[in-house]
Structure formats: C-alpha cells, structure tokens
Design goal:
This protein is an alpha/beta fold. It contains 12 helices and 15 strands. It has 2 domains: about 210 residues, inorganic pyrophosphatase (n-terminal core) (Alpha-Beta Complex); about 120 residues, Diaminopimelate Epimerase, Chain A, domain 1 (Roll), CATH 3.10.310.40. The protein is about 45% helix and about 20% strand. The protein binds manganese (II) ion. Manganese (II) ion (MN) binds next to loops.
Amino acid sequence: MAEKSVPKKKIGSLLSISHDKDVDGLNSAAIVLRYAKSKGLGFDMDLTDYGGFQRTFSSVAARKNTLIIVTDLGMDDSALEAVVAGLSRAISQGCRVVWLDHHQWSDRAVRSILSLENKPVLKVNPEYCAAEITHKVLMPRDEISAELATVAHDTDFNLRQIDGARALTDAVSVIRFGTIASKEDLIAALRPLVEKLAEKGLAGVWNNQNKRFHDSLLDKRVHHYRKEKLKKMRKALIGHCDQEIHEKLVRVLEMPSGVTTTDMGTFIADSENLTVDGNQLKVADLAITVSSGGMLGFRRGQETTLCNVAAKLFNGGGHPYAAGGEYGVYTDFQAVCDDIFVTLSKSKDWVIEADSV
Ligand SMILES: [Mn+2]
C-alpha cells in the first residue's frame, strides 16, 4: 500500500554516500562504485562525516530515480529529521534507499529509516566493518570487493597486518589533514583514490613489492607524515600525566594536531614506545587523550579497564577497548588531568576486578 504513492520509473543512477574519515568509508564507496558499474548505473559520490548530515541529506532531496546507498555512517540522531525529510523527498521522486553500517543505532533511528517508502534496506551489524557488510550485501562473489573488505577490516579493527592497509590509512589522513589546512574540497581530493581502489583493489594504488604508492607524490607525503607523526606522539608522551586510581595506572596525554586518536592509542599501548628520558614507563591500564577542542579519547593498554564505562563519565561511550567522550574547551592541561582523575576516582565501574575475569 505504501508503494502506491511512489512513481514507478526505472532506477538510472546510483548515489554513494559514505564516511570521509577512513579507509572503511572509502573502501565501502569503492565497492558501491563496482556495484554501480556492474549494473550499468551512473555513479555520483558524496562523502560526509557526523556534523555534515544536514548538508548531505538536503542535497539528496533533489535526486530522481536514483539508488541511494549509504555506507559506514551511523545515524546522527540530532540530524534525524533532516535525513528523513531529504530521503522521503528523494523517494517520492522515484529513489530507493539502501543503508549499510556497523555503528550503534537508536531504535528511533532504525524505525525512521525502515518506515520510509519504496522498500528501504537497512543492515547494521557491529561485528563487521562497513566494507565487509557492503561486500556481502552488494557484491558477494566479487574478488576485488572481498579484498577491499579485508583491507578495511585490517584498519577498522586496528589489526595492522596488511602493510598496504596501514599505508592507505595514513594516505587518507594526509589527504584529510591537507584539505583541512588548505580548505580544498575533500571529496574531490579523495575521489581518485576511490576510483583506483574500485578498479583494481589495493593494487590500484599500492605497489606491494616495493611497499610504495604508485603516486610518488602521495608516497612522499605519507613518508613525511609518518615521520612528523612519530615526533609529535613522542613529544605528547613526554608531557603525560600519570595517576594511580583504584590500583590502575591512568595516563592522560595531550593530543597533538594532525594525528589520529587511533595512531596515538596504538603508539601508547606499545611498551617499545614508552621510553622517556631513559626511563621505561609502564603501559597504562587506561590512557586518555585530550584534543585541543576538549574531546577525550579512551584506550586501554591491558584488559583491566572498560573504556566505554570510563567514557560514560564524560558524556561519551564506545567499546571496552576504545571510546570517546567530552571534556570541553580548556587552557590548562594540568587542571584537565586533575579533573579527570577526580572524576575517575569517584566511580569504580570502569575497573575490571581481578576476580571477575
Ligand atoms: Mn567504519
């Protein structure tokens, strides 16, 4: 009965909307591009991030007879109305919606998408990365899509087993931070990568024999970025604050600009990186990074703490092994550390008691 109001016209093009932030988002878009090609559909790509849904989904309202595939984006509940309005409009003009994701969804967001007309598809599964879900749903027998999914899994789950996947993660960071600094268009800057990935998989951008990008300028930029990143992370470590709370070692660090929280989290979880002025530091049970804007990142060096529970004390959440929260804008880092330590000492819920393991 719902279909009655939707004009029946053949889908002629595909709009991919994916996450601009990481390899999972890009590889998902690349798989969607392969799907579009396999179906002979025209392809447009939009990349967005939380905070950008309003813009993205209001422009979607102009689409006609388009298959709209959203990947690697959870619903931003604060933008839910704008998303539903944009998609409803598009659907009334003959579009269909497929949404493939692995983030946390509220019941309300799920209901809103599923109650759209023209048989929307919504698949959310936190056990996989988005590219894996996209591969399974759209191109299950396609080998290049399978490889793109494997590469995305390696970076999204921070396994760091595929050199090319790590390099690609750094390449995305280089391009992102580069366009933020120069105010260039991020989508235009990332599009060549997505196209090459869609064409040949990782081999489209990366030479695995000599461990370099085919694009020699990109390769140089990534090398430089890695060197700078290491310097900045070492410097941040020197300025760390440690405190023992409920018999757990809590470490707070100031997040350098131009470094991702994943890189910082991985860096400080490896004891090989923790020699400061000739002293060997212990790996922290809970490490908290504070960004210049006052956002908090939670990682753990041992399975002795719950990052998501700690993050909840700071209006955030996430996984037991990685989470995010908020402190707010600050000027005095030492005061931030003291505040964090006081808050953590008031609750013991984030500590995994030895006898409960
Ligand atoms: Mn993802």
